[in-house]
Specification:
Elements lengths: L2 E11 L2 E12 L3 E5 L6 H9 L4 E10 L2 E2 L5 H7 L1 E4 L6 E5 H10 L8 H14 L10 E2 L5 H15 L3 E5 L7 H16 L3 E5 L3 H7 L3 E6 L2 E6 L2 H9 L2 H7 L15 H8 L1
Helix pairs in contact: 5-6
The structure holds adenosine-5'-diphosphate and magnesium ion (MG).
Length: about 270
C-alpha cells in the first residue's frame, strides 16, 4: 500500500508563512481525519499537496509511494493518484460536465474508453450520488447548489479512482440526506482501498466514515496525532486542552472580513 509521506513541509501564501513544518503520513487504505481551529492551515496543506500555484513550498518534501510529488504539475499529481475535493468547487462556464469527466478519465488510460463504457460508468456514478443524469449536460458546477457541487466532487472521485483523496470540508453545506449519500459513497471508496485525508469541523461526518487516525493542526503544524477518540475529545472540549495539556498556545485567526460573512453584513448595516 502506498504512503503519502509529508516531511517538514513549509508553505507560504502571498509572502506569509502558513505551514511551518508539517510532518504527516497518509496511508492508502486508511482514513486520516485532519482537524484544527479555523485559519491554522488545513486547506493550505491540501492545496499545497495538489499543487495550487498560489501556495509556495519553501522547505520540506512530499512523496507518494516514494515518488517526489512537489516537482510534478497538478495533472501529473492527479495521474499519480492524488485527488482534491475542494471546499468551494469552482464554476467552469463553457466546460460541459460529461466532456470534462470523459477527458479526465481518458487521459489516465492508454486507450480511450468506448462511448458505451463511458456512459455506463457515468450513469451508475450519477445514480449512486443521487444526481439527476441530465446534470451531466450542464457546465461544470455552473449554477449548481452548494450540495450539488459537493456531490459532484465525490462523483469525480468515484470516476477518477485516486489512491489518496483529500477532502476539504466535504460536509459543509450538505443537508441530512446529502450527508448520508456523500458519507455512504466515501465508505464504498474506503472499502475499495483508497486512502483519505479528510478535513471537517464535525464529529458527525467522522462518526459516519470512521477514520483510523486523527491529526490536529495548530499554528501550521501537526500538534498531536491519535486515534478516533481525539475527535470525540475535540467535539466535547474544543481546542483549549492543546494549550493546557500540551503547552502549545493556539493563535487566534485574524478576523478577515469578506463578502458574505456576517461581519460584512453587520458592517453594511452601520
Ligand atoms: N490566498 C491567500 N492569501 C492570503 N492569505 C491566505 C490565502 N489563503 C490562505 N491564507 C491565510 O492562511 C491561513 C490559513 O488558512 P487556511 O489554510 O484556509 O486555514 P484552515 O483551512 O485551517 O481554516 C489563514 O490565516 C488565511 O487567511
Ligand atoms: Mg479550510
Amino acid at each position: 500500500m502506498a504512503i503519502l509521506h509529508i516531511e517538514n513541509l513549509h508553505v507560504s501564501v502571498a509572502g506569509k508563512e502558513i505551514l511551518k513544518g508539517v510532518t504527516l503520513d497518509v496511508e492508502e487504505g486508511k482514513t486520516t481525519a485532519l482537524v484544527g481551529p479555523n485559519g491554522h492551515g488545513k486547506s493550505t496543506l491540501l492545496f499545497a499537496l495538489m499543487g495550487h500555484p498560489n501556495y509556495t513550498v519553501t522547505e520540506g518534501s512530499v512523496t507518494l509511494d516514494g515518488q517526489d510529488v512537489l516537482s510534478l504539475s497538478v495533472d501529473q499529481r492527479s495521474k499519480l493518484g492524488l485527488f482534491l475535493a475542494m471546499q468551494y468547487p469552482s464554476e467552469i462556464p463553457g466546460v460541459n460536465s460529461a466532456d470534462f469527466l470523459k477527458a479526465a478519465m481518458n487521459v489516465r488510460r492508454e486507450k480511450p474508453m468506448s462511448l458505451f463504457q463511458f456512459y455506463s460508468k457515468m450513469q451508475s456514478a450519477y445514480k449512486e450520488m443521487g444526481i439527476p443524469f441530465e446534470m451531466s449536460t450542464r457546465n461544470l458546477n455552473e449554477g449548481f447548489s452548494g450540495g450539488e457541487k459537493k456531490r459532484n466532487e465525490i462523483l469525480q472521485l468515484k470516476l477518477l479512482e485516486p489512491r489518496i483523496a483529500l477532502l476539504d470540508e466535504i460536509d459543509s453545506g450538505l443537508d441530512v440526506d446529502a450527508l448520508q449519500v456523500v458519507s455512504g459513497a466515501i465508505r464504498d471508496e474506503q472499502k475499495k482501498g483508497r486512502g483519505f485525508l479528510v478535513v471537517s469541523h464535525y464529529a458527525r461526518l467522522y462518526d459516519l466514515i470512521s477514520p483510523d487516525n486523527v491529526a490536529v493542526m495548530v499554528n501550521g503544524r501537526i500538534a498531536v496525532t491519535g486515534g478516533p477518540d481525539l475527535v470525540q475529545k475535540i467535539d466535547t472540549q474544543g481546542y483549549e486542552w492543546i494549550k493546557t495539556e500540551l503547552g502549545i498556545p493556539v493563535e487566534k485567526e485574524d478576523v478577515v472580513v469578506s463578502i458574505g460573512t456576517c461581519a460584512t453584513k453587520e458592517a453594511l448595516k452601520k
